[in-house]
Design goal:
single chain, mainly alpha, 10 helices
């Protein structure tokens, strides 16, 4: 990821030590060591840093605080994962300060609110969807039932169903089909 010259400058000319698995330690400790030396700095933190800098957002990683990380590294894995459950110690500490519904909530992704964007016309999304899907042949070579597509749109807009993801896929397909048509003119009649 980093140019070699930058790595030399940052390390004073010393080569970076690759992560090593110490067979004398437990496999969990070895994997934790690899995460700290490689996965966090070379993957996760790089992505967070790149994404946050692109939009001028200051990101804090409180679990990477030196004291917090040092304390966690001193604890045996069975303490960190009581009962084989990941983040059990963190959950135990959180229960002292947060409601159960927050602590035991299932993991959630960072989905965009496409359902409401289509309904509210945020950024012109509804207009774009309706314009593209109402064309005579919106999907080009892909044969889809136009009645079913219109029913999806109607049910979604009337809030009888949440078809935002499906509609987004159909919109992308319609945009692709239009792009294909513009690049490859139809064959002359003959």
């Amino acid at each position: 990821i980093f140019p070699q010259r930058l790595i030399r400058d940052l390390t004073g000319g010393r080569p970076l030590d690759p992560p090593r698995f110490d067979a004398r330690r437990s496999p969990d400790a070895g994997l934790r060591q690899i995460d700290l030396q490689s996965y966090l700095p070379d993957d996760l933190l790089t992505k967070v840093d790149t994404a946050s800098m692109a939009v001028d957002v200051e990101v804090r990683c409180p679990f990477l605080d030196g004291d917090v990380a040092g304390a966690a590294l001193c604890l045996p894995m069975h303490r960190l994962m009581a009962g084989g459950r990941r983040k059990s110690m963190l959950r135990e500490l959180a229960r002292r300060h947060l409601p159960e519904r927050i602590i035991d909530r299932p993991k959630m992704g960072f989905a965009i609110p496409i359902d409401s964007w289509f309904r509210s016309d945020f950024g012109g999304m509804r207009t774009l969807l309706e314009d593209r899907l109402s064309e005579g042949d919106p999907f080009g070579p892909v044969n889809l039932d136009q009645q079913a597509v219109r029913r999806l749109v109607r049910d979604h807009m009337a809030e009888r169903a949440h078809h935002g993801q499906r509609l987004f896929a159909l919109l992308a397909l319609a945009i692709w089909a239009q792009d294909v048509r513009s690049r490859w003119p139809s064959e002359p009649a003959g």
